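Hey, sorry to bother you again with one of my protein questions. I've been staring at a protein lately and its backbone has me curious. I owe you a coffee for this, so here goes:
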Amino acid sequence: MNAPDLLRSDWMRNRTYDELALGQSARLVRTHKQSDIQAFALVSGDVNPAHLDAEYAEGTRFHGVIAHGMWGGALISSVLGNEFPGPGTIYMEQTLRFARPVHVGDTLTIVLTVLEKFDDSGVVKLGCEATNQKGQTVISGLATVLAPRTRIERPRPALPEMHLLFDPEARLNSWLKQIQLASPLRCAVVHACNEDALRAALMGAERGLITPWLIGPERRLRALAEQNGLDLHGCRFHPTSHSHAAAELACHMAAAGEVDLLVQGSLGSDELLHAVRALPGLHRSERLAHVYRFEIPSYAKPLFMSDAGINIRPDLEAKADILRLAIGLAHASGLPCPKVALLSAVETITERITSTLDAAALCKMAQRGQIEGAVLDGPLAFDNAVNLEAARLQGMSSPVAGDADILLAPDLESGCLLAKLLEYMAGAASCGVVLGARVPVATSGRTDSVRTRLGSLALAVQSASASTL
């Protein structure tokens, strides 16, 4: 007899010694998350860099951070203590063999099976096995417990909710360290007439990412720097009287090949992008697209999304263009074959929802080589695109489902809503860049922080440096 679904009831009910039979088993399924690593490290004090330092872990034979071995052991303990045999069980001995590492996103199935019973003492020996989503054995061992003799039913204790600290600054610094340039790129910083915009550009210069060309009112910029203790040493100036002139001059410099990227300062993005569109010599493709990069506390890797800034209701051809630009940015960021989820409200194809038809057509285009360099799947609902457990429960068999690198939004409205939801409700750190012109354009909102602006600059640097190789 197998236990149906563990850890779901509000009550805990044990199995007594007499109710246990040889061959009887119980099962628990759990998907490993980044937050599990952090929580286990906090409780145990085990801060081995193989678990917590992505840069170090990438250079190990496991090629990425892995779970603490005893995290899997703790899952075995939870089955024994909670359900099988459950309350009243006394742990006596445990052997464990760790056969394979567990990475973030792996789904473990823990199975405990009764192997031996000793009537005189009430001791029970249970075989323990944990397999991953590929059916490979990860952990095996033998548990020896003293099983309860009497029935125990207790309300399941209510535990406090754990909120782990998400440090976007640490993630940003880790990402910036990965951007290695032979020399700084020439950057037109357009009308950076507020402190955050100017400070972000100077931080990019300090990190060796750019050589800033400050385009705007020189006297005002120098006064702003002096007021806020900012050092303008090494910056070049191209004085202009107002933001319109700054945007036009920056675009002419980009079209002439004098700069490698544009960075939005304190002017509006519409004003800067209008100047980009108005100059034919700056066009690299027929379409511009905005691409977000998110660092989300509950997601183990960066997540890209497009388009939430420019194309309002993209048709199939526009979506294909947007995808090509987003895939190119993912390549520039070090993803040789990103996984692309084509979002919709449902996972089935229906003529009543245009985005499902577009998703199906885009997948076929990828199969025919019209969209290259990525694995596409869709239509996918958002939960199935980013959550392995949701994808598993829906019976999704796909290399993309639950592990997307890029999300293609059905339209600008849904993309913008999703972006704001991730930022304000999920605590995501975001940055963005506009692609499709001769040079990338680092964009930001008027109220964006220095960290966000520096992230957008870095994203544009990655794109520009890849295009010059």
User: Anything to note?
Assistant: The chain has two domains: 11-150, 168-467. Confidence is low (pLDDT under 50) at residues 1-8.
